[in-house]
């Protein structure tokens, strides 16, 4: 995996950060994005470059403007000689999800639309740009983060749940059409993971204790729990795996508590 390049959105914190560091440890060069935390991003790029002896660079990206992926990849082309892996991970929160994150009767088209743009359209444009570069190499791996909120009722999560269902289907279509270039496309569907995104839930404490109750492993997920599968899906060990969604949920979806 040494000297290959991962492009990943939203790697300043949470799951994106854990995934990027997992790849960096293996000698993979990292082109990653931030939205607001520029200083944190630049510090991480410096830390990973020095610690793992790789090239790491941070770029600004707003996934509410998916077309900006085109300019982003042109910038990445100046700094990295190849793109092997693309992971669509970033997610919006706060004001941008008003009308999209909430009970059914309070959903509004604008909020729903923002979540769809950030989840589905951003995946599409990012994956298209990545695939153009991967075609030159003759192989590649593309991953979208998803969540089990499209399988299990999660309070206030309708907007995200529906968009995650949509992106999982988009992954299958992309996999069907990109396989001929040696490009594999998969989704990783995480159960509740302890990150800022989840801490922003008004009922965070309730979700946490419910997850601990539902998981036979008696704990909530941590960002590192998704990093291993993301790395595996980009290795040749996964060379016949495409068009799939992998559920990593600590057993919570089935709720297999004795
Ligand atoms: N947490 C969970 O329970 C869970 C479970 C399953 C799946 N997931 C999925 O995993 C992914 C990561 O979630 P997370 O919990 O790690 O999120 P998080 O901790 O909230 O981190 C969000 C990341 O996205 C970036 N970001 C925020 N707004 C953005 C925007 N408008 N444009 C571009 N980037 C933006 C942030 O950058 P800045 O720091 O610069 O703002 C940050 O790097 C998401 O796709 C999420 O749906 C999460």
Bound molecules: NADP nicotinamide-adenine-dinucleotide phosphate
Task: Describe the strand arrangement of the main beta sheet, using strand numbers.
Answer: 3-2-1-4-5-6-7
* CATH second-level architecture: 3-Layer(aba) Sandwich
Give the CATH class.
Answer: Alpha Beta
Instruction: Quote the average pLDDT.
Output: 96
- How far from one another are the termini? 41 Å
What is the C-alpha radius of gyration, as a whole number of Å?
Answer: 17 Å
Could you say how many structural domains there are in total?
1
**How many helices?**
8
What is CATH's topology name? Rossmann fold
The biggest beta sheet is recorded as:
7 strands, parallel
Number of strands: 7
Oligomer: single chain
Tell me the β content.
15-25%
Secondary-structure content class: alpha/beta
Give the helix proportion (percent range). 40-55%
List the SSEs and their pairings.
Elements: E1 5-8, H1 14-25, E2 29-34, H2 38-52, E3 56-60, H3 68-79, E4 85-88, H4 109-137, E5 140-147, H5 158-178, E6 183-190, H6 196-199, H7 204-214, H8 224-234, E7 245-248
Parallel strand pairs: 1-2, 1-4, 2-3, 4-5, 5-6, 6-7
Helix pairs in contact: 1-8, 4-5
């Amino acid at each position: 995996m040494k000297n290959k390049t991962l492009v990943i959105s939203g790697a300043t914190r949470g799951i994106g950060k854990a995934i990027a560091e997992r790849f960096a440890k293996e000698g993979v060069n990292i082109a990653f994005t931030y939205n607001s935390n520029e200083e944190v991003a630049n510090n991480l790029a410096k830390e990973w470059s020095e610690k793992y002896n790789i090239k790491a660079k941070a770029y600004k990206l707003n996934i509410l403007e998916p077309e900006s992926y085109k300019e982003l990849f042109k910038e990445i082309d100046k700094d990295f000689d190849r793109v092997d892996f693309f992971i669509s991970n970033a997610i919006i929160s706060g004001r941008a999800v008003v009308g999209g994150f909430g009970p059914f009767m309070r959903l509004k088209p604008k909020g729903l639309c923002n979540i769809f743009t950030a989840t589905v359209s951003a995946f599409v444009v990012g994956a298209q740009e990545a695939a153009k570069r991967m075609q030159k190499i003759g192989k590649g791996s593309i991953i979208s983060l998803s969540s089990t909120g499209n399988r299990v009722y999660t309070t206030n999560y309708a907007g995200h749940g529906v968009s995650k269902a949509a992106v999982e289907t988009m992954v299958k279509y992309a996999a069907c059409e990109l396989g001929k270039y040696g490009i594999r496309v998969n989704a990783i569907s995480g159960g509740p993971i302890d990150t800022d995104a989840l801490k922003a839930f008004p009922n965070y404490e309730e979700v946490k204790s419910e997850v601990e109750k539902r998981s036979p492993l008696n704990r909530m997920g941590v960002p590192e729990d998704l990093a291993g599968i993301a790395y595996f899906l980009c290795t040749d060990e996964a060379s016949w795996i495409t068009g799939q969604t992998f559920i990593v949920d600590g057993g919570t979806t089935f709720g297999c508590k004795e």
